[in-house]
């Protein structure tokens, strides 16, 4: 019972190992508002093109300090990749422009 505080650390380490084994890259997406599922799918697709791993897992964060758009943060083994994007209106609905 004295080691219950370790559960979060163990879970985080397990997630890191599982992601490495499954070739999954975790990307954090910060935006002012909650993003629609179709926008998240587009972000994952574009992040996958940039990083090359088979899978991309998105973690979303609401950041009220942003004025508009999104920030995507991808941590790779040898560095970090930050991408700023904005939503552009188009004939088929809103689209992300990276």
How are the SSEs ordered, and which strands pair?
Layout lengths: L6 H15 L2 E8 L5 H15 L3 E8 L7 E7 L2 E10 L6 E3 L1
Parallel strand pairs: 1-2
Antiparallel strand pairs: 1-3, 3-4, 4-5
Task: Report on this structure.
With 98 residues, this protein is of the alpha+beta class. 31% of the residues lie in helices and 37% in strands. It has two helices and five strands. Strands 2-1-3-4-5 form a five-stranded mixed beta sheet. Helix 2 links the parallel strand 1 and strand 2. The N and C termini lie far apart (48 Å). The model has no long low-confidence stretch (mean pLDDT 78).
The total count of strands amounts to 5
Beta-strand proportion? 35-45%
Query: In this structure, how is the largest beta sheet organized?
Result: 5 strands, mixed
Integer-rounded radius of gyration: 16 Å
Report mean pLDDT, rounded to a whole number.
Answer: 78
> Widest sheet: strand order?
2-1-3-4-5
> How many individual helices?
2
Poorly predicted runs: none
Calculate the terminal CA-CA distance, rounded to whole Å.
48 Å
Assign an overall shape.
Answer: globular
**Which structural category fits the helices and strands?**
alpha+beta
- Order of H and E elements: HEHEEEE
Helix content: 25-40%
GO molecular function: proton-transporting ATP synthase activity, rotational mechanism
Pfam families: OSCP
Main location: membrane
InterPro entries: ATPase_OSCP/dsu
Summarize the structure.
Keywords: ATP synthesis, Hydrogen ion transport, Ion transport, Membrane, Transport. This protein has 98 residues and is of the alpha+beta class.
């Amino acid at each position: 019972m004295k080691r219950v505080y370790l559960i979060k650390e163990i879970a985080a380490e397990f997630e890191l190992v599982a992601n490495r084994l499954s070739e999954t890259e975790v990307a954090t997406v910060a935006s002012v508002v909650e993003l629609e599922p179709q926008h998240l799918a587009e972000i994952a697709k574009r992040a996958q093109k940039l990083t090359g791993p088979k899978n991309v897992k998105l973690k979303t964060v609401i950041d009220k300090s942003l004025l508009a758009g999104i920030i995507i943060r991808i941590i790779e083994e040898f560095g970090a990749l930050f991408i700023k994007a904005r939503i552009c209106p188009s004939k088929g609905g809103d689209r992300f422009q990276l």
